[in-house]
Amino acid sequence: MGLVAIAIWWVLQVYFFALVARLFIDLALSVNRSWRPSGLLLPVVEIVMTVTDPPLKAIRKVIPPIRLGAIQLDLGWTALVFAIFFLQRIVLSVA
């Protein structure tokens, strides 16, 4: 059971890193709308967006972004990060 728990923990950790990469990609897109990834960065961005987009869209249906004047605060990313941390703690306590 210990090896399985460690493997699950690492999968969750890699997914957390993908979410952090998604944060930086979204930040780059919000600062510079004309930015498009190219070269070696293109497949990395494509993988990160493909892996992180379905859970974030599902969470956004349940927790819609909060409007703050001209901007919207998306709490879906934060909720998903908390869920990953929570699942990691559960996996560590079981192992």
Topology:
Elements: H1 2-31, H2 41-62, E1 66-68, E2 71-73, H3 76-94
Antiparallel strand pairs: 1-2
Helix pairs in contact: 1-2, 1-3, 2-3
Explain how this protein is built.
The chain has one domain (2-94). It has three helices and two strands. Helix 2 crosses helix 3. The radius of gyration is 16 Å and the shape is flat. The protein is mainly α. Strands 1-2 form a two-stranded antiparallel sheet. Strand 1 (66-68) and strand 2 (71-73) form a beta hairpin. It has helices at residues 2-31, 41-62, 76-94, and strands spanning 66-68, 71-73. Keywords: Membrane, Transmembrane, Transmembrane helix. InterPro entries: CCB3/YggT.
Short description:
With 95 residues, the chain is mainly alpha-helical. It contains 3 helices and 2 strands, in the order ααββα.
Properties at a glance:
YGGT family; CCB3/YggT; 75% helix; transmembrane helix; 6% strand; 95 residues; transmembrane; membrane; mainly alpha; two-stranded antiparallel ribbon
